[in-house]
Amino acid sequence: MANFREGERVWLREDDQNLPSTVSSCSGGVVVFTSDYGQVYTYKQNALTHQKVRAMRGGSVSGVEDMAALEELHDGAIMHNLFLRYRQRLIYTYIGSILAAVNPYQPLAGLYERAAVDLYSRHHLGQIPPHIFAVANECYRALWRRPRNTCVLISGESGAGKTESTKLILKFLSAMSQHSLEVSSSAERTSSHVEEALLKSGPIMEAFGNAKTVHNNNSSRFGKFVQLHFNQKGNIQGGRIVDYLLEKNRVVRQNAGERNYHIFYALLAGSDNQQREFLGLSPPSTFNYLTRCSGATDDDKCTFRDVLNAMRTMQFTEENVGEILRLLAGILHAGNIEFVTAGGAQIASKSALSRTAELLGLNAEQLAEVLTHRSMILRGEEISTPLTVEQAVDSRDSMAMALYSQCFNWIIRRVNGRIRGKDDFKSISILDIFGFENFQVNHFEQFNINYANEKLQEYFNKHIFSLEQLEYNKEGLAWADVDWTDNGECLDLIEKKLGLLALMNEESHFPKASDGTLLEKLHSQHSKNPFYVKPRVALHSFGVKHYAGEVVYDVRGTLEKNRDTFRDDVLNVLRDSRLDFVYELFEHVLSRNKQDTLKSSCKHRRPTVSSHFKDSLHSLMATLSTSNPFFIRCIKPNTHKMPEHFDPAVVLNQLRYSGMLETVKIRRAGFPVRRPFQEFCCRYKVLMRDMLTPDDDRGRCAELLQRFDNGATKWQMGKTKVFLRECLEHRLEKQREAEVLRAATIIRAHVSGYVARKQYRRLLRCVLLVQKNFRAFYWRRKFLLLRRATLTLQTRLRGQLARRAVARMLDDRRRVEEEEEEQRRRRRRRDRERRRQEEERLAEEVARRHEEQRRAEDPAPLFPVRAPPARDDDSAPPDRWKTSARTSDEFSGTFEESSSTWKEFSAQEDDESLRPQEASQVEEILRLEREIQSLQLKKERQELSLTEASLLRLRVLRDQELARLEDEACEAAQNFLRSLNFDEIDECVRNIESSLGVEVADAGDEEEADEGFGADDEAFKDSPDPSEHGHSDGQRTSGIRTSDDSSEEDPYANEAVVPVLPSPEEGAPCELIPPDEDSDYDGGAAGSGGAEADCRGSVGTFTSSGAYRLGSEGAQSSFDDSDDDFDRFDTDDELSYRRDSVYSCVALPYFHGFLHIKGGLLNSWKRRWCVLKDETFLWFRAKQDALKQGWLHKKGGGSSTLSRRNWKRRWFVLRHSKLAYFDNDGEDKLKGALDVRAAKRVVDNADKENGIDIVMPERTYHLVAETAEDASEWFSVLSQVHNSTEQEIGEMHDEQANPQNAAGTLDVGTIDSVCASDNPERPDSFVIITANRVLHCDADTPEEMHHWIALLQRCKGDARVDGQEFIIRGWLHKEVTDGGKTAPPKPKLKLKKRWFLLTHNSLDCYKSSERGAVKMGTLVLNSLCSVTPPDDRVFRETGYWNVTVYGRKRSFRLYCKLLNEAARWASAVQNVVHAKAPADTPTLRLLLRIKENSLNPEVVDQIYERNPILRYSRHPLRSPLLPLPYGDAHLAGQRGGTSDGGGLREEALKAFERLLRLEGAADPAPVIQDVLRAGQELRALRDEIYCQLVKQTTRPGGPGEAARWSALACAACAFLPARGVLAYVKLHLKRTREAFPGTETERYAAFALDALKKTRRREYVPSREEIRAVAARREMSATVHCHGGGRCQITFDSHTTAGEVVEKLLRGLAMEDSRNSFALFERNDDDGAAVAEEKAIESRTVVADVLAKFEKLSSSPEGGSAGWKFYFKLYCFLDVDNVPKDGVEFAFMFEQAHEAVIRGQYPAPEETLQLLSALRLQYLLGDRSPRAAVPELSQVFPAVRLRGRGRRPGAPERKRSGFLEGTLRRSFRREPDAAPEVPTTDEEEAAAVRAGVLDKWSELRGVAPDRAMQEYMARVREWPGYGATLFNVECRDGSFPCELWLGVSRHAVSVYKRGEQWPLEVFPYERVRSFGAPLANTYKIVVDGRQLVFQTLMVADIAKLMKAYVSTMVKKRYSNCQSLGSHCGAR
Fold first, then answer.
1. At residue 957, what are phi and psi to the nearest 5 degrees?
2. What is the band of 2 on the pLDDT scale with cuts at 50, 70, 90?
3. Cβ contacts of residue 102 below 8 Å, gap of 6+?
4. Beta carbons within 10 angstroms of residue 643's beta carbon
5. Which of 20, 1077, 1269, 1552 is deepest in the core (most CB within 10 A)?
6. How would you class 1950 by CB atoms within 10 Å of its CB: exposed for 0-12, middle for 13-18, buried for 19 or more?
7. Which one, of 1669, 1754, 1747, lies nearest residue 1701 by Cα?
8. In 3D, which of 725, 645, 734 has the Cα closest to residue 66?
9. How many angstroms separate the CA atoms of 1011 and 507, rounded?
């Protein structure tokens, strides 16, 4: 070895690593080396070799910024380079584009200031020293340079600085976004809140998600994936935060030296005194959840202030902040709840319990119950089983973890809601996930964390090594592979099929699995795996060799954490919280029972924590794989978190397992930048302008790269791509930016010049315009002055001349008038004379002719005048008079049309009188018209009272009579016209006749006039309701059918062409009334009778039966209007039932366009607007581009009374502010239009169901919708348009493709095939083939045709359906029913085997499994569908397991042989239903709007005003107000049995019908009870019922108002709705109180509002007595009985509990200080029962609920007679020795002791029993006397002993075979001849007992009653078991005799053999571990590991009594401890 010089730098190989060292000395053959890390090594010089010592090169001595430039590549060089830079406080180093960051553990001044941000934003990576801002800047620039999104992966161990790095990147990106906003226009500066929100979310996320660990003071205990969405201009417009695996376990326990989450310590340190007092806060050491580490610090105070400020910035309300702090304090106090063992777990810390319950808004008793007991339902009764202390602690901790976890998720959702924005460009994602962890004790959390790090390391290796080298080899680059460590085998161990995760999940699904069984499976399965470690010593551990080292995990607690157990009873208690915040956290949390009801396969089981985390991790990897990654490797310099301390061993370990050396090698030799040739040329084309480049892209790329790197050392050419090193890319980018900047400068110069010139020209034009206008103004003013003077002069001169001319003209006119007057007088005299002579001549002629006619045989009249039809009497049918009136109206209309002619004629003949015959005819016609009008009104009033059958009969008679009378009336009118034969009628009459006969037919092409301008309000009130009758009024009163009527009734009718009369400009001699399209006649037919109608050129005529004949067009296509042919499939078209309002965001159809369609070979082609939307093919007659459109009934108009009463169904379209209506939805025949904004107002017509009035200045339009929802939507839209500006109307969404308006629909699922047609005339046509029809469609272009075919095709046999994978498929049996209605399962089923296919949208049924199989039906699935799981009852009856799927219109009842198969189908369908978006209704949307605007009363009032669906209605509902599930699955499940076939929706409609019946009900109580019963038995209906009640109580006054308010008040006392509806109800009640102060309505509202605050959970429907009491707002009363015949009257309300009644009775009896416990009992003293049935009522039970139970039992056949009553008696005997003998309590004890005696539950000799009987008689009757009425022996002596004595000697004792046998035998009816069950008593023995009792009674003469009672009690107390309540039980396991007494007393539980005095065994409560009912009628007690199992019917009573004794004992001990502590404190 060569000699060394002192101070020389060398590499010393020591302990398998290269240490940077300096030669300290070299003398005497000994060389001393000192490493840079402080170690000193001494070696002999001759022992040193080149492998041991190597000289250090220059680059390694000083350090480099990019380690890819290191001259020496080994671990020591990399670590030394990091050490040199770290010592210089340069913590960042590059490895190509990868950044290595060493945590300094101290702030570095100036490193992250604003100046640094500006500096690095202007430079590329590598131009200036390394920095994390440089990587962030590269990510930002890559948005425009790279085609994919960008992501930043920050990795490293815990404590390496990942969280701080994430915050720095967010800071830089926010600054860049702000900079882009500053340079953009002010209109686009709307996203600045996103940056602020992102930065402010950091303190919140850190406080709630970070904690102090051993390795890190601010360790992230959850994974965070932040996505930032940028727009094209570079500013952040939205974001999203995804969290992964919050460490919930840290909330309740931490390792030594670690802390809980920061927020807890911040709360304790930063809260003020008021908050501390309210939340009950104290130092951290007082909370069990915070005692593992030191207390709060000053940093925690700053954290609290930062969190509060951040929450306010994130728009958290003060209420939200307060609720979060309250929840955190509640979690801390929950940790202080401690438990003791006393008959199971009992709560020992009542103060912590009460404080927790108060902060969480819970009931303290219920919280204690669920924490210490597990509830279960047995035989319809709830049984509570005590938990052990360990189980109770787990329950408490699981509740605390669930509270914190749900609060954390809620905060994440709020933050995401604040930063949500558009995602229309690209995004930058930042992954900050927990680092690799290896503690002294590692648990389930560390396993998942390290698994995540393994996945990230795999992604790093794959991206850096595997994919990159594969790309080099694929492209043919000269490359030497780099070896790297693959962690794939370790991942296989964790996540393969039988890996660690799979075994954990499998064991988690086994109820009896334990951590020990899990460990055994892990060892047996993987002990031979090289990456699995089986410890030799540890009994509860296993190890895994991760990429970062070996980690040993403790398996204890793994299964419980993986299951994430959270009991349903705890969940239900949290849902009942009074705080809305706590309720919202758990409102949508699914209970575990609902998930586990089906025995589903593993695929559909509830996911465990690890499986959910695995799925989330795979989803994250998929997202990262589609992004362009940047890597940041955070390195921890030491494990002690010390600044300026570099531990080489720690750093070297991180460098090795992270593959840093291999990374440096591949970055040094590799080409990380690669671009395709075309993309490279396109981007750098600006650099090739001055070059002579080849034609091909590859040559151009090579030419450009040669220009920048001649040696080709920094680039290579592949087969399809250019490969560059990052330094060369930076040079290219820099040069490109310079060229682009230069080009931009030139462009800007030209643009600026153009703008300046344009501005100059504009200014010049403005100057010229000003000059021109000024000159024009000047000269115009002078001209006007001159003209004014001229005009003044001319005016005066002309006036003078005119006055002279007028005077002359007046004189001339006066002379002419005098001459004309003289001539007229002479002419009149001559005319009168001539007329007199003519009349005399005519009279003589008439007399002569009459004489001749009388003589002749033919008595024909002289004039052919036909009188009106004669009537036999005055009682002619009203319809006949109506027809005559109509004929008269027609004639009068014609007569009025010639009014001008008649007036002229009258002026000429004013002195003549009409002929007598003619005058009489006119008077007769006018009289008939008046009578007809009066009869018409009378008939219409009577018609309302007719039945449907009567109306139908009258209509038939009317139509027949009208057909006859109309012809006669028309003929009479024509005869009358012909009789008016005046010579003086001028030419205008002939013009009228000619116009009526000819010109009308020639004007048929003109547009028809508007309809109905003469409508009046009275006619509207009398009009019928078109929604109730299927036709208009015109159809009922007219015998002539109009074209409008025919088109509505007959789908094959032609569209009539309505002619229009000529206008006055065309030379018409007189003005005629235009034909009204709503009149009784077809267009143009108003005028003469039917004889003239034939010559008017109408295009179609009617037969007498009303059928329309073929006109000029011929038969119209049935496809055109008969849409029913296309929709009659076996489909459930839910997709078309929902109506979208203008406020809903209607999703655009993903394809639409015009097609020509025909439905058959004989039909014609029709052009239709076709839409493919939501798996439905729809076609419309016109393009859907309106704000709102649909069918409405419109009130007609016209000049006659009859036409004003017409109703027509019209197609209304609202576009912008114009409301147009058409004859049909083809919109080809406009009937009229109006401007909604010009209307005076839009009124909701309350007098007409679904009515809307539009009041215009000239008239009122009356409209009626078909449904209430449609009316509400129309009224809302019209009101919105009426009150909106042009801009607001333009912003309203268009209603597109509403299925309600479609001419036809077709479910894509029913299409068998779609193929191109072979029609040569239509080459672009295609055919849609279904099972029932062939539909021909013709597109405009071939491309459009192929697009339609591709979208409509769907294959059934493949793995994908419409691009979606099917979920499950297979053969099932489908029940065949009539009409598609389901029926209860029957033993004999009609089944058909069908092939079923379940997709994400529907359940399809096919005839076979072949590809071309016919689809037999489909059921579209949405969130309202329901599924009933397999029922074993059906299986027992039929042998099949059933699954029923309910849809909107039908259901599928499916059957299969295997339970697993049925459960698999049910679970799969249910999962699809749960995955659907929740459905909504208009009412639900309005409730959300009311909630959002609840603080703005004006907006709420406006919502009520504009939406009639929220207001009172007297008409039945057609659909529920809220979305309710289909079918009766929920109904049957909640009622506990099969339903009657009606679903929740039908029940909701029935409930509303009952509310309508309240108005006329004499006694509303039964009706209200029926309404409440539906809500009580069906929880899903409660919200619906409340909404209905609110709707019906919105109108004050009117009949039935008190009944409706009584129903609302009763509902408020019975049950509560969901929180959202509850807020709506409270708002309604408050608004009512404010609107009607001092009224009865206000008092009802106040009562209901107060009731909602006190309502408790109830089991029964309120009784009628309670309903009547609530209606009167008074209390109820009941009688409480006690032993000895005592009774008292109590009063209570709907909220009074049994405990409150007991307290009230104790105060009344002066027993408040009693140490014993009393209770209220329900007792049945039915005479048929041998022993009175009684049961203790729990203290929290509502007394009114028990009263309702009594009413139900009394009314049921099984309930017996009405013997149910309340009893008051002792419950727990806690102190029987210190009761005063003269008090009431002693009397209660005496009566109950006697009751136990006569029941046979007092074991004593017969002598003692006789004495007790004598004492009882002495107490009751005093001294014995012959006349005393002695009661029966059974009332004083135990009857059981009498029966025992009556058994014959030697007869064997009959025993029951078991408890169940006796139970069942009592349930059967006894046969008449059967022997009685109990043998009769022997009369002699009974007489002997009676005599003995009487003798002892005689001996007690002189004993006072009080003394007898005391003696009686003294005898009873002699039994040691006195005070215990005895229950009859049986033991079947042989440990005890069969028939037993189980005695429950205050200290212990005792087991007696029945009838014996001494117990067989006594079990103190301290030894009882748990008790409860594992099975029905089975009671189990666990005592020190011993299980005692008994059979009894009194399971619930025993459990409740034991629980009461144990609770009392624990409470007493706790109070004693408190007293002792207080006493010691005082001393």
1. -65, -40
2. low
3. 82, 85, 86, 91, 93, 634, 635, 637, 651
4. 13
5. 1077
6. buried
7. 1747
8. 725
9. 78
Tell me how far apart the alpha carbons of residues 1950 and 1956 are, in angstroms, rounded to a whole number.
12
Residue 293 pLDDT more than 60? yes
Q: For the whole prediction, is pTM greater than 0.70?
A: no
596 or 1490: which leads in pLDDT: 1490
Separation of alpha carbons 223 and 212, rounded Å: 16
Which neighbouring-strand residues pair with 635?
Answer: 102
CA–CA gap between residue 1355 and residue 1409 (Å, rounded): 12
Return all residues near 1444 (Cβ < 8 A) that are at least 6 apart: 1382, 1427, 1428, 1451, 1452, 1453, 1454, 1527, 1529
- Cα separation, 1502 vs 1633, in Å, equals 18
Q: Which of 1416, 1410, 1377, 1379 is nearest to 1394 (CA)?
A: 1416
Residue showing tokens 């009349």: 839
Q: Are 1034 and 1098 in contact (CB under 8 A)?
A: no
Sequence-separated (6 or more) residues with CB below 8 Å from residue 516 = none
Alpha carbon distance 231, 919 (integer Å): 89
Kindly state the helix (H) or strand (E) to which residue 1241 belongs, with its residue range.
strand 1241-1245
Which of 737-751, 915-929, 1147-1161 has the least mean pLDDT? 915-929
Angstrom distance (rounded) from CA 1945 to CA 833: 135
- Give the count of beta carbons closer than 10 Å to the beta carbon of residue 1940: 23
Read off the amino acid at residue 1769: K
Letter for the amino acid at 201? S
Structure tokens at 1747: 């009263």
Q: Which residue has the tokens 């009842």?
A: 1453
Quickly count: other Cβ atoms within 10 Å of residue 1391's Cβ. Answer: 15
Q: What is the three-class DSSP state of 1083? A: coil
Rounded CA-CA distance 1454/1469 in Å is 12
Q: Compute the mean pLDDT over every residue in the chain, rounded to the nearest whole number.
A: 76
CB atoms within 10 A of CB 1460: 14
| Pick from 234, 224, 236: nearest CA to 195 | 236
Residue 1170 φ/ψ, nearest 5 degrees: -105, 140
What is the C-alpha separation between 605 and 588, in angstroms, rounded?
A: 18
List pLDDT tens digits, range 1723-1765.
887 654 445 678 889 888 999 999 999 888 888 765 554 578 8
- Residue 1047: other Cβ atoms inside 10 A: 21
What lies within 8 Å, CB to CB, of 1199 at 6+ separation is 893, 1014, 1073, 1076
Local confidence band at 615 (pLDDT 50, 70, 90 cut-offs) = confident
Give the pLDDT of residue 1099. 34
Distance, C-alpha 69 to centroid of its chain = 60
CB 1696 within 8 A of CB 1743: yes
pLDDT score of 1860 more than 50: no
pLDDT at 2011 over 80: no
Q: Is 76 exposed, middle or buried (0-12, 13-18, 19+ CB in 10 A)?
A: buried
CA triple 576-2001-390, angle to 5 deg: 60
Q: Is 570 exposed, middle or buried (0-12, 13-18, 19+ CB in 10 A)?
A: buried
The one-letter amino acid code at 940 reads: E
What pairing do the DSSP bridges indicate for beta strands 549-554 and 541-546?
A: antiparallel
- Write the DSSP symbol of residue 66: B
Q: Vertex 1382, ends 1376 and 1388: CA angle to 5°?
A: 50
Q: Determine the residue type at 608.
A: T
Which two tokens mark 1160? 């058959």
Nearest residue to 1657 via CA among 1693, 1700, 1615: 1615
Q: Tens of pLDDT along 164-207?
A: 899 899 989 888 888 877 766 543 444 467 777 888 888 898 89
Dihedral sign computed on CA atoms, order 1930, 1936, 1939, 1941: negative
Beta bridge partners of 42: 32
Mean pLDDT of 1100-1107: 35
